[in-house]
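Dear Dr. H.,

I hope your travels went smoothly. While you were away I took the liberty of generating a structure for the chain from your last submission, since the lab meeting agenda had it listed for discussion. I wanted you to have the full record in hand beforehand rather than looking at slides cold. The sequence, exactly as received, is reproduced here:
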Amino acid sequence: MLTVDTRGLSRANIFATAALCAIFSNPGKLSAQVLEEVVVTAQKRAESLQDVPISVSAVSGEKLDRAGILNFADLSAYVPNFQKADTALGPVLLIRGIGSGVNQSFEQSVVQYTDDVALGRAPLARMPFMDLARIEVLRGPQNVLFGKNSIGGALSLTTAEPTNTFQARVSGEYEHEFYQQVYSGTLSGPLNDVLSARLAVRSLSDGGYYDNDILSASEPSREEFSIRTKLRWDMTDAVTSSLKIERALIDASGTPSEVFVNSPSQGGPLAFLFNDSTYPQIGESLGDLTGEDVGQEDGTFDFRRSTSIDEFSEIDATNVTLRVEANLNEMELTAVTGWLSYDTNELCDCDQTGLDVLSITQREDYKQFSQEIRLASPVGGTVDWLGGAFYQRSELNFDSFSLVDGNNILTALGTLGDRLGPLGAELTAIGKGANSKTGRAYDSGSEMYALFGQATWNLSDNVRLTVGARYTYEEKDAARTIDSKNTLTNDFDVEQSIVVNQLLGIDLQTLGELSAESALGPEYPQGFFSTHDLSEERSEEAFTPSVVMEWDSSDHTMMYGSVASGYKSGGFDARGNREGDFAYDNETVITYEAGIKSRLFDNRAELNAAVFYTDYRDLQVSQFDGEAGFFVGNAPEAVTQGVELDGRVQFTEGLSATLSLAYLSFEFKEYEGSCPRPEFIETGERKCDYAGKRNIFTPEWSGSLGLAYTKVLDRGYSIFAGIDANYVDEQYMEVTLYEPLKQDAYTKLNAQLGLESDRWSIYLVGRNLTDEEVTSYITEVTLSGGSPFFAPSYSGFYDRPRSVAVQLNYWFD
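The corresponding predicted structure, in token form, is as follows:
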């Protein structure tokens, strides 16, 4: 049962609630101006947002442009219960606290769809927004009409269409402090009586907002270039086809992270040397032994970092979509064919410090083909229906190399061991095997077939029953090979194996007990790293039904209740280190939702609300082991529930307001995960019971309040002013739910002020004007909390601080 404890309301929540009451309790203050209708395709038909029985938020292309919303990270500020988190190994998208972990084998639980083609891989969440008509955020499982793995929700992006009249626009945005520049242009119009085309181009450069003291560089610097062409052919009066070809290139250097929490060493085999020293202090001491400059980390947050490797991340993505729409005796036939591919190439200084501990190169090569065919009945009969079939084939090739080479922390430990004599024999052994390259190759393929349908029975003029279902069958295969070699001998040996295992968490005191036979034989410890060559196959099928009841209680109010099921297929772990942990299971969900959508005061205001309860089984999770690896598993049961509120009001012809408010309760019912490192050091327990705890990225309250004002002046000019306050409650940002690492509640303020005419506009765009210090992800620094140091340190990925940009737009006709 859902309960809401209002005692936890912050000032921002109370303010938002009061503002909503004020908006909707003073109809006399509203003018005759009505709200513009918002048209969405959340149910694969064009219809009013107010007629869709789903909790959905829509952001128009105009709002994206005016507010300077450049990507999913910017969008999350305007859509409660939606977040994007960046990590060193990839982005994560989340709705209602549900998303996929950091692992190349994972397909996203919140799937991005662009023009009806699924972009379900994590690197594609970094794609920039360019020339979009709108974005729809659909909350809850979308496993009937949207299909593949959309168990947490769907992000539906619709690109702008070619026009029948000539249109052109150029835009530029410049932000001085961090030297961010964005330039874009669109050109659209008819080529002849039956052909029209649209061209969109976008370029971004960013100087970065971190200072790297070792490399004397600003990070993360970024270069992006995107181009899209879209051709529409009106083949007959009843048949239209469109072809879209787009490509995006992204080249980034560095990551927006820094070490900001340092705990003193808490014992271990080197306590007599480093007791009460923090990990950076230990690093400075070891750096002195090798002549390595490791920089200084004082444990404070100041937008300064000390990493010693030139990190980079490159993405090259191509997307081709062919869409055919035909009217067949008033029925609508739609066929969507998608070709998608991308390549990534990355180098990560994954220890996040100036210590040369662990750098990882990784590459992905992904290819996808999909075909969807839908047939929809005319609207307005006794039964409205839509059905179709879906096919998708994909291939992923992923490889990575973990490099420990030259002067590094292990070399320093070996040097230290030499100086300690007999006491340092084990450290000396580590130093001798310090030059290593651990290679990982992962290849997977998937082939999926699905049939889906949805029918709405109009029981009366104001009551409708909708039943939908999807049947899915999927086959997967995968292979993973791991090989560790000494870069000096190019051979795998026991000494090198010991070094790698030290990095992966085997206690130092066990190293001397490992003989050559035990190191390579089947009796080595369960956690011991091994070279291996695995391959497996699996096939799955799923049936995911949904039921929705709608009631128009008046001409302006629709109430609904729904039950929906969802499914996400299992797979094979791309990043694991142990042979026994290759496969993970599928996850399932059932969601109960009730809502109301209402138009008020002669269509001058809207108020929508939804309450939901969601039960997840075998939730797929990924956790960093605190040393140098990730592992994937399933949380047996988790429940998320809450309330979502959206409102719009048109006060006068020029003044409007929007409000969104969300309450979210998340609880693991059954799950054992990794203990926080300080707790492990104190108790020796690696597994902790998460039952009763919230997950990461699950703030209890979030919301936004926006005001927009346009004043028409003489001679065709107008002034526009907009302000948006975005509140997020405190939340966990680190996977082991270590309490001291919670992100505090914050309120970001964004604003726009501009002068507009029929031909041009100029805006000042302010982002994070309250200059909030917000981290999107926290992770333990590699090797810091494990043997032999036991000095846990953490690094955080911080959002951009306050910035103000100038934006110029010019239209041609």
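Two observations you may find useful: Residues 145 and 155 are 13 Å apart (CA to CA). The chain has one domain: 6-405+436-487+531-812.

With kind regards,
E. W.
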